[in-house]
Structure formats: structure tokens, C-alpha cells
Write a structure and sequence with these properties.
A hairpin with a 4-residue loop joins strand 4 (about 50-55) and strand 5 (about 60-65). By secondary structure, this protein is of the alpha+beta class. It is about 35% helix and about 25% strand. It has a 5-stranded antiparallel β-sheet, with helices on one face.
Length: about 180
């Protein structure tokens, strides 16, 4: 098995591409080992000293390290865990249903449907290329509230991505959008 790695815009995050499906549907974001019990893969990655966050996407695993740790020391251990996990055909998630991002229970109006469609077709693929994801939370009083995950969480350029990229695009296609803010 050959696992590719890619740098992301966030220097503390590395994207691992195992060449197979990681998550069948949705994504999973783990900020610490406590709470990652539903993912045997994430738990094993957190066993490596210096791992601060694990994000599981459709065909990639994104790992965020502590600032004081060096990728040259972490990367071989992480590659070994990911390779062993997939070679042994262990499940990535024990409860696949819990991995899908939660949707709001509110009835969606046309504006929200249009915003979600734009995020799904134009934004999420680009953000996934960088090892992250974006989740819609709400649209209130002209403001779209979004949550950045994976390599995008804590990335120095995530604010610029939200303001310059996503906000401008949404304002262009949906005149009711006045601003985009992180959750």
C-alpha cells in the first residue's frame, strides 16, 4: 500500500491520502482523543505524541500536530498506523451514522437551500483539496455562519478564505447574504 502525503495551507497540518475511501459519507473531526472513541483509526493516531487533531474526509486523513513537534519525526509513525489500519481492513468508524455533519432542524427556505448548494458544489471540493471541510450552521439577518474543519481549522489563511473567497462568492450569487462569519 502506498500512502501519499500533501502539505496544506496550514503548516501544522498534513494530509494523508491512502488511495482508498476513508469515510463513506460525511466527515469526522476530532479535536482530542477523548471523544474519538467511535473511530479506531483516530484513536490510534492520537497515540502518537504530538498529534493534536484528526480529521477524516472522503478519501483522506488530515492530522494536525503540536507546534513544537517536527513532521520529520511524526510522519513515519503516522504513515505506519494508517497503512496498518487499512491493510488489516479495520473499520474507520464504529458508528458511521454519527459522522455525518448535523443539520439544523429548521425548515429551510430558498435562500438557505441556495447557500448550501453553492457551498456543496463550489466550496467544499476546494476546501477538501486542502484537507479540510466546511459546515453550514445558520443564516440569520444576512449573515452566514460557517464552521471550518480539518486543516482549515486554525489555519492562518482560513479567515481570508471565509471573507475574500466564500463571502464574495455567496454575495455574488445570493444578494441577501451580507457577510460570512466563522462559528
Amino acid at each position: 500500500m502506498f500512502i501519499q502525503t500533501e502539505e496544506t495551507p496550514n503548516p501544522a497540518t498534513l494530509k494523508f491520502l491512502p488511495g482508498r475511501t476513508v469515510m463513506g459519507e460525511g466527515t469526522a473531526d476530532f479535536a482530542r482523543a477523548e471523544g474519538a472513541e467511535r473511530s479506531p483509526l483516530a484513536l490510534r493516531l492520537f497515540d502518537v505524541d504530538g498529534v493534536r487533531r484528526v480529521f477524516l474526509g472522503g478519501d483522506f486523513v488530515t492530522v494536525t500536530k503540536a507546534d513544537e513537534k517536527d513532521w520529520a519525526l511524526l510522519k513515519p509513525a503516522l504513515l505506519g498506523i494508517i497503512m496498518e489500519h487499512f491493510t488489516a481492513n479495520h473499520p474507520v468508524m464504529l458508528d458511521e451514522g454519527a459522522a455525518v455533519p448535523a443539520e439544523s432542524g429548521e425548515e429551510e427556505d430558498e435562500i438557505v437551500i441556495q447557500i448550501k448548494e453553492l457551498l456543496e458544489t463550489r466550496v467544499r471540493p476546494a476546501v477538501a483539496q486542502d484537507g479540510g471541510d466546511i459546515v453550514f450552521h445558520a443564516f440569520e439577518d444576512g449573515v452566514v455562519y460557517l464552521h471550518m474543519q480539518g486543516s482549515c481549522s486554525g489555519c492562518p489563511s482560513s479567515t481570508a478564505t471565509l471573507k475574500m473567497g466564500i463571502e464574495n462568492m455567496l454575495r455574488h450569487y445570493v444578494p441577501e447574504v451580507l457577510e460570512v462569519r466563522p462559528v
